[in-house]
Amino acid sequence: MNFGRKLYAIFTLAIILFAGIATFTVSGVSSLKERHTIAINHAQSDIWVMSQVTLELERTLHTLFMYTQGIDGVTHDQVMLRYDILWSRIPGILEAEESARLRNFDDIEKTVTELKKTLTALDDAVKTLEPDDYKKLSFIHDQLMPYSSRLNRLASLVVSSTNEVGQEYLQGLEKRTSVLELSVIMILIGSILLVGLLVVESLKVRNLLTQAKNAEQRAEEANQAKSAFLANMSHELRTPLTGIIGFSGMMEQETMGPLPPKYKEYAEDIEKSGKHLLDLINDILDLSKAEANKIELDAAIHDVESVVRQSNRLVSGLVETYQVHVISVIPEGLPELRIDRRRIVQCVVNLLSNAIKFSPAGSEVRIMAATTSNGGLSISIQDQGKGMSGADLKIAMQPFGQVRHGPDIQHEPGTGLGLPLVKLMMELHGGDLELTSKPGKGTKARLLFPPNIVIHRYRQEGGDGSGRAFIFTGGKR
């Protein structure tokens, strides 16, 4: 996904976030208002229930009075109907779930319960009431009349309480709504800041990517320029160096006639310096090509013993100079390697040269070869020199890095490119260079070859004396 699409995705997510917050705000406020409406409706229902009980009690008393006075032709059935309606209002307060809040008022539940008991006791009197029976009417009136004032008072109390609760709830609603709105505003501000930060960081990342791309391009151009420079330098320096080395060699050997001893010494120094400079140029070129992955390996199948033997011949002069014994331990039956022989010999020679130069006179340098546990193969060089610490190993693996142990070291100065070049050559073969060393314990260098370039040869004999040869590549057979 490119940067433009990422930025578009960020804005889309921001819009979705804002829409979600807005929906949450509207639904939250609506929910609070709805709860407030439901609470008010419940309170009004309580008022209606109390007013109905009070109203039905007064209507019952009025109907009883009209019945005994014979007014408007009120019949006994009408009296019983009104009486039953009054009875029907009692369960609405004492039993209905909608009236649970009313039962929180002790006086209401007590008063209605007493009214129920009174109505139960008056059932027979009401049922047997006759016109002009003023005595029984007076008894019934005296029993019910006190409840009228009590119920009126309690109804007023419910109205007052409902108003207070409604006012408190309304204030709480306003407060919660304000808190909700403030929270939403804070969330919106935070979201805007977050999106802004994401956009800013995205722009920074885009700028950094652009800078990195430009830097990579400049580095590639610089690397190409370096390669071109090194190629030109190689051509320009090798030609005169070859002449310098050749002529100084002739002078040292006195080909054209004897020289004064001092001049012969100078000629020898010139030849050594020229060879050292040529080696440095060659190492720099090889290292540069390896880093640019421009070395093409000329891979073929070679046996380890011949590679070690050739390497030993190439360092024979150093062995005599430093009086070090090189011992080769190459077991029989080792598999072969598919390698660029010249490059691997170069790696072994570099490691042997280091081991010989840093070993005390009379000590041993052992070169060994063996198969590895993963089916690969290793060639190791172990010396008895002063060894290196962990910090020294890091320095030695850096280009031009040279480890110095003091002014008493007598070996010839190197280029500091040997170990980095060996590591790069091994990596081109899919292998690696492993160094282990401790101060006073010497150094061990291992060339680790991967299983896929290890070659096993074997022969399958036929029953008639014939046979077929096979090559098995890659790890253990």
| Proper CATH architecture of the largest domain | Up-down Bundle
Say what oligomer this is.
Answer: single chain
Summarize the biggest pleated sheet: 5 strands, mixed
End-to-end separation: 47 Å
Q: What is CATH's topology name of the largest domain?
A: f41 fragment of flagellin, N-terminal domain
Characterise the protein shown here.
- This protein is α+β, with helices and mostly antiparallel strands and 477 residues long.
- It has three domains: 201 residues, Up-down Bundle (f41 fragment of flagellin, N-terminal domain); 66 residues; 148 residues, Heat Shock Protein 90, CATH 3.30.565.10.
- The protein is 65% helix and 12% strand.
- A five-stranded mixed β-sheet has the order 2-4-5-7-6, covered by helices on one side. It has a four-stranded antiparallel β-sheet with strand order 1-3-8-9.
- Helix 1 packs antiparallel against helix 2.
- It is rod-shaped and about 175 Å long.
- The two termini are 47 Å apart.
- About 1% of the residues have low confidence.
How would you concisely characterize the structure shown here?
65% of the residues lie in helices and 12% in strands.
